Amino acid sequence: MTTITGRRAIGASLSRRDGPQKVTGTAPYAYEHRFDRPLYLFPVESDVARGRVTRIDASAAEDLPGVVTVLTHENAPRLADTSDRELTVLQAGDVAFRGQYVAAVLAETLETARYAASLVRVSYDEVPHDVELRPDRSDLYAPEHVNPGLPTDTQEGDFDRAFPSAAVKLDETYTTPMEHHNPMEPHTTVALWEAGDLTLYESTQGPHSAKQTLAQVLGLDADRVRVIAPYVGGGFGSKTVHANTVLAALAAEAVQGSPVKFALTRQQMFSGVGYRTPTIQRIRLGADQDGHLTATSHDVIEQTAKIKEFAENTAVPTRTMYATRSRRTTHRLAALDVPAPSWMRAPGDAPGMFALESAMDEMAIKCGLDPVEFRIRNEPALDGETGLPYSSRNLVACLLEGARRFGWAGRDPRPRARQEGRWLVGTGVASSTFPVIRLPGSVARIRYAGYGRYLVEIAAVDIGTGTWTALSQIAADALAADVEDIDLRIGDTAQPEATVEGGSSGITSWGTAIFEAARVFRDRYGDSPSEGDQAEAAAADNPEAGNYAMHAFGACFARARVDADTGEVRIPHMTGVFAAGKIINPKTARSQIIGGMTWGLSMALHEESLVDARFGHVMNHDFAGYHVPANADVGQFDIAWIDEEDPHVNPMGSKGIGEIGIVGSSAAIANAVFHATGIRVRDLPITPAKLLR
Amino acid sequence: MDISLKADGRERRIAVDPRTTLLDALRERLGIYAAKKGCDHGQCGACTILLDGKRVNSCLALAVAHDGAEIITAEGLAADGELHAMQRSFIEHDAFQCGYCTPGQIVSAVGMLSEAEAGWPSHVTRDVSAGETRLTDDEIRERMSGNLCRCGAYANIVSAIREAAEGGRFR
Amino acid sequence: MKPFRFDRAGDISGAVATLAREPDGEFLAGGTNLVDLMKVGVMEPDVLVDVRRLTSAEIEDLPDGGLRIGAAVTNSELAADRRVRSRYPVLSQALLAGASGQLRNLATTGGNLLQRTRCVYFYDTTTPCNKREPGTGCSALEGCNKDHAIFGASRHCVATHPSDMAVAMTALDAVVLVRGPGGERRIPVAELHRLPGDEPQRDTTLEHAELITAVDLPPLGFSSNSRYRKVRERASYAFALVSVAAALQVRDGTVHDVRIALGGVAHMPWRARKAEDALRGRPAGQESFRAAAEAELADAVPLRENSYKVPLAGNVITRTLLDLTGAP
Prior knowledge:
The complex is a heterotrimer. By secondary structure, chain A is an alpha+beta fold. Helix content of chain A is 22%, strand content 25%. The N and C termini of chain A lie far apart (59 Å). Chain B folds into two domains: 2-77, Ubiquitin-like (UB roll); 85-166, DNA polymerase, domain 1. Chain B has six helices and five strands; from the N terminus they run E-E-H-E-E-E-H-H-H-H-H. A five-stranded mixed β-sheet of chain B has the order 2-1-5-3-4, sandwiched between helices. Classes of the chains: A alpha+beta, B alpha+beta, C alpha+beta. At the A-B interface, helix 1, helix 3, helix 12 and strand 26 of A face helix 1, helix 2, helix 3, helix 4 and helix 5 of B.
């Protein structure tokens, strides 16, 4: 494979090109473009979890001055394709989960729309609902595969024989709660349907994907749909197409010619734009006298929705992490009367590695080994999941360098043995991993604008990941130009097709397309192009994909302080060392990592969506009840990169880093809390109540 | 009801529904989007503005209750096309990612520095009865805890504010 | 939000008279709690009478050595006042432990006292709640109740009062000055809030159209040796799991006098009189403090998810008192 040579921009710690707009609040998010006399949409959500709508009385709402219409399943425009039940909005009266949209008000002001929605009276034939995930359910089933298209169960060697005879054994169950993405910008659509053309200003992680989906469900030619998303206020996996976008489009169709503005309230973010399933994970580890794993099993129970299957790949990282003589992984789902779960930052890896890396810590202690040493001792030569060699794997280097930077040497392993004033003090470590995902099909278009300047177009998105800057750097090096001479345009389906921002695949996939287009451009026009010269190319599949297992690795270390009286936990310091190939922009990459590790802290200590099974919905549906860390919860970070050359992953030699930060960091914290307190918490989040003695 | 507001330096007169918050007045009526709606319930700080010099959540302030008020948003902090020192510091320290909480963070930080300069203590101030408060990193963290950042840029936000505080008015 | 009429009253008498005529009206000060509740349809007043500029925004010295806090003083200003910080540090700390800088800049003394519970069922108009709609039931009793009461609850309501400031004021025996259609009166803060009993819809003993005009802090010789300790699930910007406001006077190693109030445990700030009685005259140390805490907590009635509050409160009471002796 050819790679980019003569790098000057790649590897530079450039400040974000979208900085001035973001710090002045003038970067337009979906709601913030200028629209002429818009209408405001406010939905009516079901307050039963399962049943049928029998009657909708919208008369009081319709009577309010300024209300234009109230849409229901009786009068909403018809969808052409109803095969995706999550997206089938206002087409029939059946209710599949609490919070489902059963009506929508369109009005001239925001206040009128919201108040009118509260006046709509909906009657239901309610039937008993089932929303509880429990390990003893008799209807747990094995899906055909787990995301993304991986085997549901795997087996290597004979676990059932190896485990009972292991010298050292561990058999524990770990649980993680339901979690909601909660990007700061709520899901937002502004939809305009005019003369058969649909334009969406959409807070989305994939403009072309959204366009294709909307065209499909609405029965439109794809070229009649345009999606615009230059700035997106966070996504974390939640900003793919959900019912809210379809509802906005239907409303736009109903009132053709008027822009329809629909921004979800924070409360509405908890009932229909995706979430991470709760998990119940049983891990069994067996090792010989020298701490070599002889038996590993990871059995996962999690939920999906009856309306749409989503199988979180929770046990998948266990297939890759360590050498073991036998291994088994399984996934079982319960289909419930709930909204559809969705991709949430490091799907599978985040909850799965919390369990595995907690178990590895417990096992190291049982084997009488230092936790770093125990992991190094079980470093595999080949990838257990595929049997292939790794394109590059430097987990050991991450563990060793991290240990050095953190000051791990000479650590007293005894739990609850250090106190500073009222604070119990401890340290913990965990491994991190994330696959290199490279999606084919992105297309970049490059046009020479004269005076050394290039216009580079690709419908990628920046959801906070630094795309505006990183792709400019890649284009600059690929074209042997300066970054200042690259005019990058992203976030609009008027630009060439690009894959979604997800799976940490953005820079990898889009960067490859830009590289290919630049290669075609330079092959065609050489060093002296003329104004208007243009080239376009697509990123193909990685030809090396079948030869190597491709993953990024890392190691997280955490220092924990726990108040002996109250169980309050503080994490004043975290160290993260990552081997993720070429780092395109160390400044923004560090931000991705500290952001991911803050998510790991959040997962460990704070987040939990509390469902009241009697009603079927999340009760703590706002930022007062659903805790993410505040500034005071987060301390210092020491982040470092292992120099890693990997010519097999993509022309830049880079690996995705948007998600690896959250993987393992929650376990590093849980392990540190154990070291501080002697209390092993296997059920996240670790709240003060769980640490009181 | 008719009200007048001075928003980012410009006098504006508008008629508002009594239910309209300052946040919605800015976004829906005045075309100023630098105050952002993250939660609409005073739980995230993305809507932070300076209201007559004090940082507040604009989402819980009814416009009709603040007739005649002077409002500054992040857009107004950048005077004559020049970024405010706090804004420059945020860019330098990469104190933002998706940018949605960022204007609120910046306005909140500017307001916070005034409060610290006035000698106001905080929850982490060891002795509230003491005269002076030093703006340590822990003080910055606590005083900025009314601005959530889901991207997790907190560590860089603290660095950015520290640099702006040291270089600016507050010692 | 339901439409309402906005009334800019010219003075307190006018405001009171207006509200007396409007059975579904409310006073509006900072709005940080009322506007919040109106957005989710929990409160739906027909009229808002704006009182933010009518009551005093000053903190005055009283001749007896106490302080009179105008109802319109913001939470920030009250917390930052140098007299409060030196003479009643527990109050300053309580305010600083609450909400966020932005909220404290708008929220007022009067409004803070009258803020309503943050029970998730109270806030969700699609779930039964006796406080919001008497007779519909208490969803928290058998539901998500990790944040709910361990003292003074009834089977009609197990909610807690969320104010930190009110807990400190309760420990300090503050007195609330009120003006209403029937004239002026003084209400000890401990009598302002109610236990739910069988009327959980009534948070306070105020009559309709009674307006809080000020809060008096009586002088307390040892109030400068006071402290507020709040335990939360995150380091800042969260409601209390349990909080303690305490003031301690020790003479010759013996507890001469003490004040203790608890937050996060009941429908009102919980004055821990049993603990206080068990402490006066006892040696000032770990053993007495722990015994006093246990005397108070003996009556705690935990719910399915909040039993942790009992040991937590015991630990925090003990630790806070120890901190006030200057012990390491």
